[in-house]
Write a structure and sequence with these properties.
This protein is an alpha+beta fold. It folds into two domains: 116 residues, Sandwich (Immunoglobulin-like); 124 residues, Nuclear Transport Factor 2, Chain: A (Roll). It contains six helices and 18 strands. Strands 2, 6, 8, 10, 11 and 12 form a six-stranded mixed beta sheet that branches. A four-stranded antiparallel beta sheet has the order 1-5-9-7, with no helix packed on it. Strands 15-16-17-18 form a four-stranded antiparallel beta sheet.
């Protein structure tokens, strides 16, 4: 009965080719086995490789010391390295690990399970993964994320929610300036191209100011009607309610609306620009903002 045992080992190993296909390097692989001295005495053992089939002995070597001392009942690991020259045809190349007792080589020896080295076909080159590029990519992505965060932190911007809140605040300012009939203030907030009630797109700042002036100029009152009843007096006028959402969301809510579509097209607004609906004393005013910078783009009563 053999003193040594090699109870287990890999049934197959992959030997991928590497290097430039025009200047390939040897294809390499390795297999690891457990070798146990089953006796109660210390014993010297010699490791070797047994090849079969189309395999050649010169392609396989035992890593480290081939001759070792095994203590009583000791288990050691043994590694066989395979190295195939670039011109060896792809295929399966079997081999085994053998261990013999140095003091009785003819009668005391054992072999491990058959292992097959699978060599890739000639011309099939596997490029080894480089973790360096992964770390570089992660570093670049982290830098971009930090830059975006700093941009929004410094600009006071953010996601849609932040832009909507900013638009609501600007709407309150617009309402206050409007209630004061402050033409200069309103004109400063309303940059061309600008849209108002009649669907016209105003391309000049002066035209915007004239449009506001026309809205604030009282029409002649019918006989017997007091000014206080005309609806033109809106001192202290402020929004009672303000609701902001993206243009895309507002379109879904109101459905088909040619006037709304005409206004949005005239101001060249996008789906992620902002619509603010303000209500005061039953009067609805729609304000359009360009999300980039939350800039007032138009007003419709």
């Amino acid at each position: 009965m053999p003193t040594f045992e090699i109870p287990d080992g890999p049934t197959s190993i992959e030997a991928p080719r590497s290097g430039d296909p025009k200047n390939p390097r040897p294809a390499e692989a390795s297999a690891v086995y457990s070798v146990t001295n089953t006796s109660s005495d210390s014993l010297d053992g010699r490791l070797s490789v047994v090849v079969s089939g189309a395999s050649k002995a010169q392609w396989f070597t035992v890593d480290g010391d081939r001759e070792r001392t095994f203590g009583a009942g000791e288990t050691q690991t043994a590694t066989i390295k395979a190295s195939f020259p670039p011109d060896v045809a792809g295929g399966d190349y079997p081999f085994r690990l053998r261990v013999i007792a140095v003091n009785d080589p003819d009668n005391d020896h054992a072999e491990g399970p058959m292992t097959t080295a699978k060599l890739a076909p000639i011309g099939v080159v596997v490029i080894k993964k480089s973790w360096t590029w992964l770390w570089i990519l992660l570093g670049v992505l982290a830098a971009i994320a930090i830059a975006i965060g700093l941009y929004f932190a410094l600009s006071g911007g953010g996601g849609p929610s932040a832009a909507l809140k900013k638009a609501e605040k600007k709407s309150a300012v617009w309402a206050e300036v409007y209630s004061k009939h402050d033409l200069k203030g309103l004109s400063a907030m309303s940059k061309p191209p600008f849209f108002l009630d009649d669907g016209a797109v105003l391309l000049k700042q002066a035209d915007i100011q004239k449009k506001y002036l026309a809205k604030f100029t009282p029409s002649p009152l019918p006989a017997g009607l007091d000014a206080k009843d005309s609806g033109e007096v809106d001192s202290g006028w402020k929004f009672d309610k303000v609701n902001a959402r993206l243009v895309s969301q507002y379109k879904q809510e109101v459905g088909a609306n040619p006037e709304l579509d005409r206004a949005i097209a005239g101001m060249k607004l996008g789906e992620d620009d902002i619509v603010v609906v303000g209500d005061t004393q039953g009067v609805t005013t729609i304000l359009f903002f360009r999300r980039d910078g939350v800039e007032l783009a138009g007003v419709v009563d």
